[in-house]
Amino acid sequence: MLIPHIEVVFTSSRDAPLRVRTFLNELTYIFPNSIKINRGRQSLNEIISKSIYLRAKYLILINIRKGNPGRFKVYDLTNRTVKYNFIIYGVTLLTELKLPRTIIKRGCIGRIEEESIKNMLIDLGYLYLENCDAYANGEYLENSSIYELKFTKDNKILGPIIRFLLYDRNKNFN
After folding, report:
1. Distance between CA 21 and CA 30 in Å, rounded?
2. Alpha-carbon dihedral of residues 41, 89, 95, 153, nearest 10 degrees?
3. Residue 98, Ramachandran bin (φ over 0: left; ψ between -120 and 50: alpha; else beta)
4. Residue 169 pLDDT grade (very low, low, confident, very high; cuts 50, 70, 90)
5. Contacts with 152 (C-beta within 8 Å, 6 or more apart), sequence order
6. Cβ distance 99 to 30 under 8 Å?
7. What average pLDDT score do residues 27-41 get?
8. pLDDT of 173 above 60
9. Nearest Cα to 134, choosing from 155, 113, 148?
10. Looking at residue 2, what is its pLDDT?
11. pLDDT-derived band of residue 172, with 50, 70 and 90 as boundaries?
12. Dist CA 60 CA 73 (whole Å)
């Protein structure tokens, strides 16, 4: 049996509520070569050690804010540093939209206006290819610093819709 190479590990902060656990599950479907590790009572160092043992390149920690996903923090396990750290403004889950989950094996970047989001997606396995299972598309919502990221194919939503609070021209959030 061929064991797939793990590139990305997802986990949450401790005692994650159901909505955050569902969000993590949906993320593992849309990011190729990824798994979720249940955090439980494990320290972040224990999770990092497990991720390194699995030879993953990145660990994504979803922090919680008022029972919802609050921060999308990407750790580069090669350098052992935080590479990306985005505030999550909101998410819409596939389960809330009553849509089925689809496992994505080849992800492509579609239309992404924000360079930091594009770089993160490339690092997490979304490449500039054709004939993909899903395309990541994003845009700023009108007159705001909220950036909405969708995973689609043929106008069908395949993953959770993630809204990031990126920056305001007067204040720097990220």
Report:
1. 15
2. -120
3. left
4. very low
5. 110, 134, 135, 137, 158
6. no
7. 93
8. no
9. 155
10. 60
11. low
12. 6
In the numeric block, which tokens belong to residue 130? 């054709």
- Retrieve residue 107's tokens: 């992800």
CB-count exposure of residue 117 (10 Å: 0-12, 13-18, 19+): buried
The pLDDT tens digits for 111-131 are 998 999 999 999 999 986 788
| Token pair 């921060």 in the structure block, residue | 71
Q: How far apart are CA 40 and CA 33, in angstroms?
A: 22
With vertex at residue 49, the alpha carbon angle to CA 10 and CA 17, rounded to the nearest 5 degrees, is 35
Structure tokens at 174: 């990220």
Closest alpha carbon to 133 in 5, 25, 31, 8: 31
pTM for this predicted structure: 0.91
CA gap 7, 17 in Å, rounded: 25
3-state secondary structure of 143: coil
pLDDT given for residue 145 in this prediction: 93
Contact 137, 111 (CB under 8 A): yes
